[in-house]
Amino acid sequence: MGTMKLRLGMIGGGQGAFIGAVHRIAARMDDEYTLVCGAFSSDAEKSKEMGLILQLDAARVYETYHQLLESESRLPPNERVQVISIVTPNHLHFEPAKLALENGFHVILDKPATFSLFEAVRLKEICRESGKLLCLTHTYTGYPMVKEARQIVAGGKLGEIRKIYAEYPQGWLSRFEEGSGNNKQAAWRTDPSRSGIAGAMGDIGTHAFNLVEYVSGLQVTKLCADINTVVKGRKLDDDGAVLLKFSNGSSGVLIASQIVTGEENNVKIRVYGEQGGLEWQQSDANTLKLMMIDEPVQILRTGSAYLSSYASHNTRTPAGHPEGYLEAFANLYRNFAQTIKALLANEEPSPEHLDFPGVDEGVRGMAFIESVIRSGQSDVKWSEFSLKYEDN
């Protein structure tokens, strides 16, 4: 596939934007991309300042994303941007992603995919019509031992899946941070006009949901949600628990909370089948615990020769060196780049390269948000997990 770098542009991700910096690190880690252009802020001066910091050609630092996409599409094919990374708040996901795809660019999109399920379904249609690819950055699917867990389940080692538990505990919103005036992240993530109808369930609940469906290979069909807003004055949910029913008839529990004081980001999943179970958590990301019936517990470790090709492909360091969040994020960027490069070379991408979240996961993530909030507001015990939306 050669050593050619893909030309990358970024929308959002200006100074003080946590996730924009993470995306840039992920893009640089494997030298698969060169950042060539950007519209980093809705404030033209701030966008220009970010361009200077990143040492970009001033002519390719744009005031708006409309200007970026229009101007780049007019450049010669061997100069124009090829991939657009969108790292804006949720309400500014759909329009730039739509325009990027329609202008012939591949898209890397931060999660959740869009502001609403209606937009996500439309984006899937646009993506299919454009013939371009979309990568949705559900970070935790990039960890080697999460990929190993998926392969173990898919290979039938655990037998028929019976029970799944997923949890994502955070404590950073235990206080009314959005009222402080100096917490940009809290301000937009708790604002319905920018975040959408969900707070914690949209921000981190979608990660837990994606992890559940990715590892188990099952799909949620019904749910029963208890959704809470604990901190006084907050406009969106900051805590919740969801009972799940899956396509094979099994059940699960998903917990997402941003008010469990003292907690950081220890997302965790446990999957139990008729023959055994497994457990993974981010605080010990190199370890996958495998518990087979009538056998001693096994501790599987990143970097070991006995792991699947999927785990090995996404491992960067020798065993014992921590494979962390930034590496997991970079795995998504690299697999996406390798897939694009294979297609440009008229080659078939490997299954390992194709293993990144896309627009289908984006639609299901938005369906999760809307189904959960609807269930949380209802006094009916079980609600259908629905891909239907209000046409707005």
Automatic annotation (TrEMBL):
Entry coiled-coil feature ranges: none
The residues covered by the Gfo/Idh/MocA-like oxidoreductase N-terminal domain are: 7-136
Which SUPFAM superfamilies does this UniProt record tie to the protein?
A: Glyceraldehyde-3-phosphate dehydrogenase-like, C-terminal domain, NAD(P)-binding Rossmann-fold domains
Using the record's annotation, list all stretches that form the GFO/IDH/MocA-like oxidoreductase domain. Answer: 147-279
Gene Ontology MF terms: nucleotide binding
Q: Would you say which domain of life the source belongs to?
A: Bacteria
Enumerate the InterPro entries for this protein. Gfo/Idh/MocA-like_OxRdtase_N, Gfo/Idh/MocA_oxidoreduct, GFO_IDH_MocA-like_dom, NAD(P)-bd_dom_sf
Please give the name of this protein. Answer: Putative dehydrogenase
Its organism's taxonomic lineage begins at: Bacteria, Pseudomonadati, Bacteroidota, Sphingobacteriia, Sphingobacteriales
